[in-house]
Amino acid sequence: MKFSIKDDSKKMNHQVLLRLCLAMVSCSIAIWSVGYSAMVQSDAANVKLDIGNNGEQITVKEGTIIEIVLEGNPTTGYSWFIQNLETKYVVLISEKTSPKHSPSEYPHRVGGSTHFIWHFKTITKGNTEIKLNYYRSWEGISSAVEHFKIKVTII
């Protein structure tokens, strides 16, 4: 039986090369899938979110407008409040309320559900969170009965 160190080292080199190729292909697929999902989300100039998006992470481009619409009932004293917005990454550009139902649907209705609507604009690349809490202002944030939070990656 012939034993050759040269043959064994060639086998080992081929195995190492094969493993490196497989690792590169795996990494390429992973990077492509992450890049593709980010690209799909960030192609929109505007992103619309509601309570169903609570706890999610989104990826958007600089200059994207993020609209958040949450329901509330201000006649009970409750309102949504923004918590610690990092204005280095995201700024509030508008905030308004709108009745959930049009007056023509319920002409004699007083009070009722309201949409709280915010528009935020992304400023610079980075990671931040947008957090909103639903509470009565005189009771403070510790009495919040509902929370909304999204993680934002700006590319």
From TrEMBL:
Superkingdom of the source species: Bacteria
Pfam (any one): Inhibitor_I42
UniProt xrefs under Gene3D superfamilies: 2.60.40.2020
Residue ranges of every copy of the Proteinase inhibitor I42 chagasin domain listed in the record: 59-152
Membrane-traversing stretches: 16-39
InterPro entries in the cross-refs: Chagasin-like_sf, Cys_protease_inhibitor_I42, Prot_inh_I42_chagasin
Keywords carried by this UniProt record: Membrane, Protease inhibitor, Thiol protease inhibitor, Transmembrane, Transmembrane helix
Signal peptide segment: none
Molecular function in Gene Ontology: cysteine-type endopeptidase inhibitor activity
Protein name as it appears in the record: Proteinase inhibitor I42, chagasin
